[in-house]
Amino acid sequence: MDRRSSIKTLLILSAGAAILPSCLQEEKKPSVAVKNFKINANEEDMVASVCDTMIPSGKTPGAKDVGAYQFALMMMDECYSPEQQEKFMEGLKDFDNFSKKITNKSFTKATPAEREEVLKSVESKKEVPENVAFFYNSTKKLTLEAFTQSKYYLTKVHVYELVPGKFYGCVPVKKAS
Amino acid sequence: MGDSKQSRTFDAIVIGSGMSGGWAAKEFCEKGLKTLVLERGRNVVQPKDFTTTNMMPWEFKHRGEIPYQVRKENPVVSRCYAFREDAQKFFVKDKEHPYIQDKPFDWIRGYQVGGKSIMWARQTQRWSDFDFEGPARDGFAVDWPIRYKDIAPWYSYVEKFAGISGNKDGLPNLPDGEFLPPLELSCVENYFKDFVAKNYKDRNVIYGRCAHLTQPKQIHFDQGRSQCQNRSLCQRGCPFGGYFNANSTTIPWAQKTGNMTLRPFSVVHSVIYDDNKGKAVGVHVIDANTKESIEYFAPVIFVNAGAYNTNLILLNSKSKRFPNGLGNDNGLLGKYAAFHNYRATINAKYDGFKDTKTEGGRRPTSAYMPRFRNLYKQETDFLRGYALTFYSGRWSYTDNSGVGQHLKDNLLAEPTLGPWSVGSGMMGETIPKETNFLSLDDEKKDAWGVPLLRINIDYDDNDEKMIKDFFEQMTEMYTKAGFTDIKTNDSKQAPGLDIHHMGGVRMGKDPKTSLLNKWHQFHNCPNVFVSDGACMTSTSTQNPSLTFMAMTARAANYAVEQMKKREI
Lengths: 177, 568
What we know:
The structure holds two protein chains of two kinds. Chain A has helices at residues 3-16, 22-26, 41-54, 68-79, 82-103, 112-123, 130-148, 151-157; one strand at 167-172. By secondary structure, chain A is mainly alpha-helical. Chain A contains eight helices and one strand, in the order ααααααααβ. In chain A, helix 3 packs across helix 6 (112-123). Chain B is an alpha/beta fold. Chain B contains 13 helices and 24 strands. In chain B, a hairpin with a 2-residue loop joins strand 23 (521-522) and strand 24 (525-530). In chain B, helix 1 packs parallel to helix 13. Strand 1 of chain A pairs antiparallel with strand 15 of chain B.
């Protein structure tokens, strides 16, 4: 038995015994090295789940495939102010409470359909706490940026031309056939 | 090795390697003068140092954005539209090169070979006598010592070499030049052009002339340049040499002669004036890296450090003869500084031409309206006037609402073509005055022991009235043209962000009221020339770089003639 499976077994055993100590949970390190604010692995998972729910993977790539949540956290870390980072983290924590109110579950434990329902509730802008809205809106903005500025999107969906060549000032709009 | 005075002596010294310095270097080297070109920043060799030029959007870590910490530490340069991830290395960071703002002034700079010519906006409109005669007619500043006929052949000279795209419009207030073909205007731009021509006497909408090779000629191929590809990524430096910058034109041309010694990392401390000989003899340089003090010598010195750095160097060039800065007998050095007022913009929508759009490249210019206010006579309660841009486009948009598959489907679908958007930006002439001035701090020095520059420049009532008039006139023209949803905006930005820094070492006929004569020589120190923005007596409205280039080529050729005649 290799080491990884033995740890997994240990975890299952521990969980089964319902004595999973919180310190063990925290040992899982977040995978994005954030320097300017604190985020733990569970919170990171939540950001990832939000991004993946926004633009799901399927037959074609989604948020996960373009590294959207990693990009979102890196941008929050390097391009946002300390005040914005604080609001983002507060919003993230309250977002989970918001989720529980709707689905009775933590966001990461919810089913894909339930997750989408939670995001739609935030989109409805009804009774959404301000910092939850901030967390959501900044995550959405960055997810959209990650997706629409990705190599996949700019080479396969709407092709970015680095060297476009001739400019035409006045051409007819083609009717959709 | 090479430490004797002889090895540090040249036929000419040019301080600065950018828009104008590059031209002085080219002219001197072509005429056979051994020329030392001093640049305070690093070397930038095209194409190898245009490192971001072929990067795709996703290859920029922050997708173009400047990180928070950098913005926080450098608030001034962060306000510049072109200070983005792709071009940030060409801009001076405030933190590294401090200056003192007695009044808010955004001093945008580029310290490298090529200077700001790498990131400039490439608009190249000629001046006319409506501009040169402005101060004399309207009674401000002093009369220019030159007229259009003096500079016209030199406009042609630099235009042919640089490559200027334009249309022969036949306008007296914006003379035609040596043009490569224009790019196309959009249907809405052509509509507005016709509308203005029909409804307003003496107002014209034209294709904005720009330094792009729309159809290169042999001289451009000889420079190793090729056709502009309409990338509009110019601020990164161009792998095609599609637009004019010193790095792909004047500097390599000078280099090719074998007569140029280019010395990067050379911070110029001052021009050395020899009290015994009664003339300037050289330049005092601090090596940017070693901080070693070195003197270089030449019989002729061109100061093209970028307008306000030129002022700084000259103010710091103190001798027994000139205790208050080189040539500064009248105490006017640093005074009458000016800029362009870029605060006002207007935009709107247009409902027509729904069946047309632009396609293909990203056009690197727009339409342009030369100054029409107070052109033939004084007609408003403010002096002078403004030119403006006119641009149009149909932006595509995607519905970003919702989440999940619904959102994804929208993102993957063909974007919706929006209505035509139109807009204009004002380029206002500011009136140079004594109270807008540059000076040196008495105590504070930079890392190289050079005093910090203090900038004391502000808008005045004339500028405010001009903004109001721009909004009124544009709103009227836009409304009559059928544009809707008209919105005006006063950015309230500080002077300087226009990056058209001018004045402080003005030209004039009279040594009592000006520093430089009609050949850009100091009245009282004729072997020192200033032909960058610092020499400007007034600012008019045109983007000034083309004029700096033409002035420099003219002055350099004059200097060569004078040297031959042993006049200097």
